[in-house]
Design goal:
By secondary structure, the chain is α+β, with helices and mostly antiparallel strands. The chain contains 5 helices and 4 strands, in the order αββββαααα. Strands 1, 2, 3 and 4 form a 4-stranded antiparallel β-sheet that branches.
Length: about 110
């Protein structure tokens, strides 16, 4: 819903805009595992179209911190000593850490907008 809200707000923010685009990262569970995914919404004034990126599984220890202690991803990755940066989201995200900097957050999101 966050991506849709952002897309609608973006369309309304510019007078005469025919489209608004919004993105939102989120988590979902499947078979006891936790996955991160990005949604991209495009609001054309009549409908809101949504696409999703590929999802990736979070490490087990991070999943436990998120689900049992209510931590956000940055705090959980730092608590598990996978990284030590409270601003990792501004520097490629935890996906960059997990992939040895081969995949950065912004690059992983582009399929959601196709």
């Amino acid at each position: 819903q966050g991506a849709k809200n952002r897309a609608t707000a973006a369309r309304h923010a510019v007078e005469g805009a025919s489209l608004g685009i919004g993105m939102e990262s989120g988590l979902f569970q499947s078979d006891g595992k936790l996955f991160d995914v990005c949604a991209c919404a495009i609001d054309d004034g009549e409908q809101c179209h949504v696409g999703y990126s590929c999802a990736w599984e979070l490490p087990t220890e991070v999943t436990k911190k998120v689900l049992s202690e209510g931590m956000n991803l940055t705090d959980a990755f730092n608590a598990c000593e996978i990284c030590n940066d409270p601003n990792i989201g501004d520097k490629g995200g935890v996906l960059a850490i997990m992939s040895g900097n081969r995949v950065r957050c912004r690059a992983s999101r582009w399929p959601s907008s196709l």
